[in-house]
Amino acid sequence: MQLCIHTHGIDLTDAIKKQTYQKLELALDRLEGKICEISVTLIDTNGPFLGGVDKACRIEVRIRDQDPIIIEDCDESVDEVIDRITDRLGVVACQRIDVSRRIKTQRRTWFENDPIEM
Fold first, then answer.
1. What b-and-e string marks burial along 66-87, b requiring 16 or more CB atoms within 10 Å of the CB?
2. Mapping DSSP to helix (H, G, I), strand (E, B) and coil, where does residue 34 land?
3. Collapsing DSSP states into helix, strand and coil, what is residue 45?
4. What percent of the chain has pLDDT over 70?
5. What is the mean pLDDT of the chain?
6. Which tens digits make up the pLDDT trace of 94-112?
7. pLDDT at 45
8. CB atoms within 10 A of CB 97
9. Nearest partner of 40 among 97, 91, 1, judged by Cα
10. Domain at 2-112, CATH from 3.40.50.1000, 3.30.70.1130, 3.30.160.100, 3.90.226.10
């Protein structure tokens, strides 16, 4: 899995890198082997001197042979936004896997039950 982390107005510390990687690994374990690239962007939207809900995070996961998963969220702290957005990403990844399996099963069932007579 290729992981790129970009920041704007936020110091990219080793702790943030480690937390991001661990949370992504946990959230996306069911998509192992299918992920081409993950891009994480962390932004302090109103600068380092003003508080509030201003830490934005955007994650884009590129999956082989599927549309990418893109999730965005904001919070007061980088840790909280990473935790929440990776939790949401895990749910979306599970849904994506379930839909993909259902479609493959339906295709297989259709072909097996309706043989072409010649």
1. eeebebebbbeebeebbebbbe
2. coil
3. coil
4. 76
5. 84
6. 887 777 666 666 655 555 6
7. 85
8. 14
9. 1
10. 3.30.160.100
Residue 48 contacts residue 74 (beta carbons within 8 Å): no
Which residue, among 66, 72, 69, 62, has the nearest Cα to 1 in the 3D structure? 62
Binned at pLDDT 50, 70 and 90, residue 66 comes out as confident
CA distance 66 to 59: 16
Nearest to 18 by CA among 68, 79, 60: 79
How is the chain split into domains, by residue range? 2-112
